[in-house]
């Protein structure tokens, strides 16, 4: 699914009306109907009590007025508070005229802000994608008044005061909604941690916007939903054998961190790899062989960390980093690996696919000259702190996305920035936000599991780097969701994610 800017969203409205021969009021009615369907599915008239609708002067306010009429007809009690403005949009005026007199309407005045009881329901239809500057004056005052009231706030399309696609200055007035019900496509703002307190839980309702316009519109931002990865996992042909699905090499583990190697290996096996060999320090031999009997195991001459790079010829993909340690000997292994991976494989003529995680990333940050040696399409899987060590501290989440795009394009690699909406950056400058996963996955070892899944998918000759990375990230999150359905989020551990990778991949 694409994510568009606010300006592109306005063009999308126009294109939809032209394509479908719709009046703008008809499109507004679709939006209001979608909102009301969501609302009535959530709250009965009794639960809702007297709803306050805060209404701005543009089409977001127009959506609100239309929704007020539909809600009243469905038996809800409402009062509407209008933000004064020099002019209101034509569709606003149309819906104002249609609002029955039985709905109480009052203008907001500086000295007379609407009364808002604790826990009462408020619908925020002040501003949406047409916000052109931060809120000031009376609008800002209304928003602050609302945020202080501790009401249950539901925003139409966007929490008012929030830009859809850009940061707002610090301390701007922005509505803190519990729910945001948006139309058509997700907004970039929904996916960034800094906006979580404003957006709350969000949903996007389909209002039949022009598919042709969306397909023809260029954007760097994408949202990976089930449809994006459907059918992407290559089938397992009847006459396949373990060689068909690749042989992966994992370089992981050190004293006290053998669990990372075990989890990564487990995830790689559940990710469908044909064969897995792990190269681990001597101290981990029993631990690893007992916990992962399906994998083969090479032990390093060092007991506590890895100091040797095995012969790479048998492998179709290499993963390095989980639990690795940052010992200089392990740095030397990383150097050798990058050097070896710079030459195309004799068998296929392709570069050896690499997955680089955890301590291998930290080694890259402390030896940045090595970044120049990353083979094209290597996959790096940093969390935000690891990413900032590779680049620079980000001013905010939008700046971090800029840094992410720059990094992936400059180094011709794929970067999986882990988080609530894990963001995959590709060498062509695209950013793909993942839709699966939950806060239960913020637990030790979860990242190791991701590396294992990615390693399995990269070892598979039929999956190009981008498709493998996007599918791996999606399946990892989905496995976490399936696991959390059984364990609850608090009870979730990384091993639970491993156990659900099979079912998650089977779904796609
Ligand atoms: N496809 C869809 O998603 C549909 C969306 N709909 C709804 O329409 C809004 C967008 O409506 P629009 O009229 O473009 O914009 P807003 O309602 O958000 O606000 C525009 C008015 O607000 C003024 N404005 C802007 N910023 C400020 C500010 N900081 N302070 C005060 N006033 C402000 C603006 O005035 P200008 O001076 O900037 O011209 C306008 O008067 C979208 O979010 C959906 O809710 C459609 O209903 C259907 C399809
Ligand atoms: K709004």
From TrEMBL:
Question: Which EC number(s) does the record attach to this protein?
Answer: 4.2.1.136, 5.1.99.6
* Cofactor comment text: Binds 1 potassium ion per subunit.
Question: Which segments constitute the YjeF N-terminal domain?
Answer: 9-215
Query: Which reaction does this enzyme catalyse, per its entry?
Result: (6R)-NADHX = (6S)-NADHX; (6R)-NADPHX = (6S)-NADPHX; (6S)-NADHX + ADP = AMP + phosphate + NADH + H(+); (6S)-NADPHX + ADP = AMP + phosphate + NADPH + H(+)
Nucleotide-binding: is it a keyword of this entry? yes
CDD domains linked = YXKO-related
Q: Which UniProt keywords apply?
A: ATP-binding, Isomerase, Lyase, Metal-binding, Multifunctional enzyme, NAD, NADP, Nucleotide-binding, Potassium
Residue ranges annotated for the YjeF C-terminal domain, each copy included: 225-508
Q: Which positions in this protein are listed as binding K(+)? A: 60, 124, 160
Is Phosphoprotein there in the keyword field? no
Mind telling me which InterPro entries this protein's record contains? Answer: Carbohydrate_kinase_pred_CS, CARKD, Nnr, Ribokinase-like, YjeF_N_dom, YjeF_N_dom_sf
- So which cofactors does this thing need? K(+); Mg(2+)
Q: Which Pfam families match?
A: Carb_kinase, YjeF_N
Query: Where along this sequence does the record place binding of AMP?
Result: 418-422, 447
SUPFAM superfamilies assigned: Ribokinase-like (SSF53613), YjeF N-terminal domain-like (SSF64153)
Where (6S)-NADPHX binds, per the record, is at: 59-63, 128-134, 157, 260, 323, 383, 448
What HAMAP family does its record include?
NADHX_dehydratase, NADHX_epimerase
Function, as annotated, reads: Catalyzes the dehydration of the S-form of NAD(P)HX at the expense of ADP, which is converted to AMP. Together with NAD(P)HX epimerase, which catalyzes the epimerization of the S- and R-forms, the enzyme allows the repair of both epimers of NAD(P)HX, a damaged form of NAD(P)H that is a result of enzymatic or heat-dependent hydration.
Identify its protein family.
Answer: In the C-terminal section; belongs to the NnrD/CARKD family.
Q: How does it assemble?
A: Homotetramer.
Protein name (database record): Bifunctional NAD(P)H-hydrate repair enzyme
